[in-house]
Amino acid sequence: MKGETNWKLKLKALLHDPPNKMWVMFEEYKKHEEIAEKFFRCFFEESVQEEKVNIADRISSALSRVIVAPNFEKEEEKEEFENKTLISWEELKFIDIFSGRRQTSQLCGSTKEIEKIFKKIENIVDNLSLSEQERSKFLFLFFWRFYPEIFPWINTHPADSRAPNHSIYDHLVQTSAIVSALPNPAFFLFTIAPVQSFIATARKTQDLWAGSYLLSYLVWESMIPIINNLGPDNIIFPNLFRQPLIDFYLKKLKFGDKSFEELTKKIMDNGVIFFDIPEKLSIANFPNRFLAIVPFDKKLAKSCEEEFKETLKNLADETADKLAKKLSINETKNIKNSLKTQIESHLLSYFQVYWVMLPWCKEGKIQDLETVFNEYKTLVGETELYQIIKLISEHTYYKPVNVGIVYSLLLELSERLLSARKGIRNTFITSAYTQEGEKCTLCGEFNELWLLDCEPNWKDSCLKEENRKMWKILEKGYTVRPNERLCGVCILKRLFPEILKNKLNLKEEFVFPSVVEISATGFKRTLTEQEKKKIKEAFKEFLKQIEKKGNKKLPPGNPVPQLKNDILSQIDGMFLMETTYRKEFLEEEYGIKNLDEKDFEDILKILEKLRKEEGKTPSVYYAILQMDGDNMGKWLRGEFLPKIEEVILPKVKDALFSFSKGRSVKNLKKILCSSHYITPSIHQAFSRKLSDFALNNVKEIVEDQHYGKLIYAGGDDVLAFLPIEEVLDCAYRLQEVFKNSLSGKASMSAGIVIAHCKYPLYLALEEVRNMEKKAKNEFEKDAFCIEVITHSGETRYSGGKWELVSLFKDLICKFKTGEISSTFPYQFLETVEKLMGKEDKRIDKTESVFEIIKGELKRIYERKVEDKEFLEKLIKIYENYPFGYQKFANIFIIAKFLEKERKF
Predict the structure, then answer these.
(1) Are 840 and 900 contacting, i.e. CB atoms less than 8 angstroms apart?
(2) How many CB atoms neighbour CB 180 within 10 A?
(3) Which of 238, 439, 565, 570 is 20 to 30 A from 18 (CA-CA)?
(4) How many whole angstroms separate alpha carbon 748 and alpha carbon 772?
(5) Angle in degrees, 0-180, between the axes of helices 244-252 and 260-267, rounded to the nearest 10
(6) β-strands 783-789, 748-756: how paired?
(7) Could you tell me where the beta strands, DSSP code E, fall in 160-261?
(8) Contact indicator for 285, 695 with CB cutoff of 8 Å
(9) Residue 861 pLDDT level (bands cut at 50, 70, 90)
(10) DSSP class of 779
(11) Peptide bond preceding 70: is omega within 30 degrees of 0, i.e. cis?
(12) Cα torsion at 161, 162, 166, 171 (round to 10°)?
C-alpha cells in the first residue's frame, strides 16, 4: 500500500462546499466557494481549494448529476440557457430518487449560524496538542459522522439546483472518497463464502444468530484496512454511516489524551448519540460483501484478505483459550496450542474470500471514456444502459466529460468479474477435510476436536473413549448438548457470543430463547400473576431437590426480550410442559439423576390443574419467519428508479427542449424517458434506507411489538423466531414498514414455518427458506407462504398476496367462536381433492370445476347464521386467487390449526 492517508486533503474535499450551499447562492447571494474558504480557515490557515479536490469534485459531480444540455452554437446561447434555468429558493425542491416525491427544501442555517458552530469546534480543537495529521483526521471523521446530526436538513439540501436528486452531504462524501483514490480510482468488490450453509448449520437458536453475526463481523473486520488507510467514506456499500460497529470503532480512537467520544460530546454539548448500544450491536447487519472506491493498488486488496485471515486466527486462539479454561487444562500450553491449530485449520479451510479490483481509467486519464465503453461493449454488449450512458456523455452539460459518468457501467463490469472469479473455485484440498477420524456431530464436514494432550489417534479405541469423556466435561457446563462433539467451525459458533461480549466490552452476554421457550411465550402471557407466583415457588422447590441430590444446576431460562422482567423469566418453557417431568427425560436431556416422582410432584400438579380447570397449557409449536426484499438486484442496478425527466425540475426540462434542434431533440427525448441509472449517491442512500429499516424498525417490530426474537436483519432480509400467535401480524407489519421506508414500488416476500419444538432446527430452517422461495416463485413476489409441520411430520402450505393475512385472521376468529364448523376445512379439502386429485392446479375461471368448488365454499355457513359480508369477501378472494385449488383449501386447514394452537 502507498503512504499514509492525507487526512487534510480528505477534509478539504469534505468541506469544499458549505453545507448550506444552495441557501448561500439563492438567499445570501454570495459565492459558495468564498464561504467554504471561510469555514475551512477556522481550522487551517490555507485555502480549501486544491487541484486534487477540484478533480475529485468534477468526478463526483459527473457521478450523480444527470444534467444534459443542447449543443450550443454560441456562448451567448449557453448564458441564456443558464439564465432560463435559474430558480429561486422557493422553487427549489428536493426529489427523492426512489419514489420521485418532491419536497420543499427545508429552512437551513444561515452562514453566520453555521460559522458559530465551526468556531466552537475550532476552539475545542485548538486546546488539544495534536499534530496536523491528527487534527485533520479528527475533523474529517467528526464531520463525516456528525454533519447530518448538526444540520438535520443536510440530507435533503440539494447538491445541484437543476437536478436536485441527491444531497449536498452525499456529494461531499463522494468527493472525499474519490480524492483519496486519485490518480487511479478503482472499484474493489470483496465477498466471503459460504453463507447459507454456514448459517443454517445450527442446533440452537443461539447457533443460528452466532453464524449470522460471525459473517457480519468477518466482513466488518475485512473492511478495517480500508477504513484505517482511506476512511469510512470509501466503503460505498454497505454505507457505514451510523452503523453500530463503526461507532464502536470511532469511540475508541484517541486524539492526544482524549477519545473521539469525549471530544464529540464537548462539541455537541453531550447531545451526541452513538449507535453502538447493545441492542444495536446485537443485530447482524452487514451482508457478506462490500464495495469500495479505492486507489488501484492490489496490495490494499490483499491487506483486506490478510485481515480476514488474521481475524480467523485470532478467533481460533480465543476459542481455544475458552475451551481450555472450560476443560480446566490451562496448566499446559500444549493442549491449547493443539486446539488452536485444529480450530485454525478448520476455519481457514472452510471460509473462502473472493475479490476483484477494477480501475476506472488508465494512468489517471479520467476523460478517457472510450476504453470503458469498448470493454463494456465487448463483455456485456450494447445494452440499453450502455446506449443511454453514451448519449448522456455526448450531451452532458458539464464539460469536459469524465469517468464519473460511466459509474454504472463500471459497477456492472465489477459484478460480472466477481461472478467469473467465484466460478473459478479455490480448488485445494486440505488435511482438515481429508483426515481420518470422527466427524463433527453438527456439520459432519470436519473432524470433532481432539481434546487430549497427545497426538490424535482415532484408531486407538481407548484414546477415543478418553476424548469423549473430555466432551462430557463440556456437557456439564452446557457448552455442548449431550453426545454432541464439534469441529473448530461449530465450536467457534457455539462460543462466539462469549467471545463477542469481550470484544465489544458488553456487561451482558448475548443470550437467546430456545424454540421451546418461544412456543411457551403465549402460555406465559395468559397466566395471571397469582398463577405465575405459584409456578415459580413450586419450581424453586424442584431446583432445591435437584441440587440436594448432587446434580448440577439447571441453566437459567432465556425469555424473549419482551418478557425479560416477567415473574417466570428464569424458567425455560421446557419446564412449563407436563411431559418434561419424567425421570428418564430429565436424565437424558439434562443429566439429572436420582430423582423421585415426588421431587417434582408439586410443579406437575399445578400445571395439570391449569390445563384441566383453566384450559391453559403451553403450545408445542413455534414460528420461524424469513423475509427478503423483492428484486433487490434490480433495485441496485437502478431498474426501479424514476425516469430521468422526473428528477430534474420542469423549468430545466422546458429550457432543454427550447434550445434543442434537429437530432438533439430526439436524443434528448430518449435520455429523459430512460430510467435513472445507479450512482454512488443512490447506492449510499439505498444502503442507508435499508440499514435504517434493519436497525431502527425490525428489532422493535419483532421483539417489542410481537414477542419474538430477531436473529438477523441485514437490510432487506430478516430472520426471526416468533410465537405462532404473532407471526402473521409481525410479517405484515414488517413488509408495510419496509415499503414505507424505501418506496411504494418496493416489496418483501416472506416464508413462514410453524414447526413442532421437537422438529430438527436445521430442517425447519431449510423449510423456511423453501417457503420464502415459494412466496417469490409460486405466489409471484410481494407475498407470503406459510407452512405447518405437525408433530407427525405431515406438512401443508399455502399463501398469497399480503391482503390474504386479513382472511387468515378472520378465519381464526370464526373458528374460535364456533361460527364456522371445525369440520368444514377437512370436508372442503376432501371435495377439492376428489375433483382435482392430489396434484394442485392453478385456478381457472373457465373450467366447470371452478363453479362446483365455489358452490361448496358457500356451504361454509350451512349450519350457522350466515355472515353475508364475510361470505362475499371470501367468494371474491376465491375468484381472484389464481395459485391453486388445493392451496386455497389449505388456507382453511392452516387457519384451523392456528386457532387450535394459539393461546389467545
Answers:
(1) no
(2) 24
(3) 238
(4) 10
(5) 100
(6) parallel
(7) 185-193, 235-237, 254-255, 258-259
(8) yes
(9) confident
(10) S
(11) no
(12) -70
Return the C-alpha cell found at 364.
Answer: 489517471
CA–CA separation, 686 and 702 (whole Å): 23
SS (H, E, C) 440-466: CCCCCCCECCCCCCCCCCCCCHHHHHH
Instruction: Please confirm whether the linkage preceding 400 is cis (ω < 30° from 0).
Output: yes
Give Cα 279 to chain centroid, integer Å: 15
Task: Name, in order, each residue with C-beta under 8 angstroms of 600's C-beta and a sequence gap of 6 or more.
Answer: 542, 545, 581
Answer whether residue 461 shows pLDDT above 60: yes
Amino acid at 580: T
Please, what is the average pLDDT of the chain?
89
CB-based contact 722:702 (threshold 8 Å): yes
Nearest to 14 by CA among 171, 155, 160, 231: 171
419 CB neighbour count, 10 Å cutoff: 11
Residue 376 region, left (φ>0) first, then alpha (ψ -120 to 50), else beta?
alpha
Q: What CA–CA distance (Å, rounded) separates 622 from 560?
A: 13
As a whole number of angstroms, the distance between CA 239 and CA 600 comes to: 54
CA dihedral 50→55→59→62, nearest 10 degrees, is 90
> Concatenated DSSP letters for 597-613?
GGGGHHHHHHHHHHHHH
Using the predicted structure, report yes or no on whether residue 638 has a pLDDT greater than 90.
no
Please list, in sequence order, all residues whose beta carbon lies within 8 angstroms of the beta carbon of residue 269, skipping any fewer than 6 positions away.
Answer: none
pLDDT digits (tens, 9 = 90+) for 514-523: 999 999 999 9
SS3 labels along 252-300: HCEECCEEHHHHHHHHCCCCCCCCCCHHHHCCECCCCEEEEEEECCHHH
Cα–Cα distance between 509 and 504 in angstroms, integer?
10
The C-alpha angle with vertex 842 and arms to 837 and 843, in degrees rounded to 5, equals: 95
In the chain, the domains with their CATH numbers are: 1-180+247-268+642-675 (no CATH), 181-238+285-365+428-512 (3.30.70.2220), 528-615 (no CATH), 803-904 (no CATH)
Angle (CA) 665 671 672, round 5°: 90
**Strands laid side by side in the 289-295 sheet:** 235-237, 289-295, 185-193, 352-359
DSSP class of 180? T
Contacts of 434 (CB under 8 A, 6+ apart): none
Q: Reply yes or no on whether the pLDDT at 661 is more than 90.
A: no
In this prediction, residue 332 has a pLDDT band, given cuts at 50, 70 and 90, of low
Distance between CA atoms of residues 113 and 390, nearest Å: 44
* 376: CB partners within 8 A, 6+ apart: 386, 406, 409, 412, 413
How many helices (H) does the chain have, and how many strands (E)? 37, 14
Which strand (E) or helix (H) includes residue 4?
A: none
Report the C-alpha gap between 894 and 886 in whole angstroms.
12
Cα torsion at 223, 226, 231, 236 (round to 10°)? -60
CA angle, residues 723, 724, 725, in degrees to nearest 5: 90
Distances (CA, A) of 226 to 235, 247, 262: 8, 16, 25
Under the banding of pLDDT at 50, 70 and 90, the label for residue 877 is very high
Strand partners, 807: none
Query: Using CA atoms, how far apart are residues 791 and 788, in angstroms rounded to an integer?
Result: 10
Query: What's the pTM value of the predicted model, to 2 decimals?
Result: 0.92
Q: Count the residues in the chain.
A: 904
Task: State the Cα angle at 889 between 885 and 892, rounded to 5°.
Answer: 160
Q: Provide φ and ψ at 817, rounded to 5°.
A: -85, -5
The one-character DSSP state at 648 is S
pLDDT at 554 over 70: yes
Q: Are 692 and 741 in contact (CB under 8 A)?
A: yes
Q: Are 730 and 214 in contact (CB under 8 A)?
A: no
Q: How many CA atoms lie less than 13 Å away from 481 in the CB half-sphere?
A: 12
C-alpha distance across the termini of the chain, in Å: 62
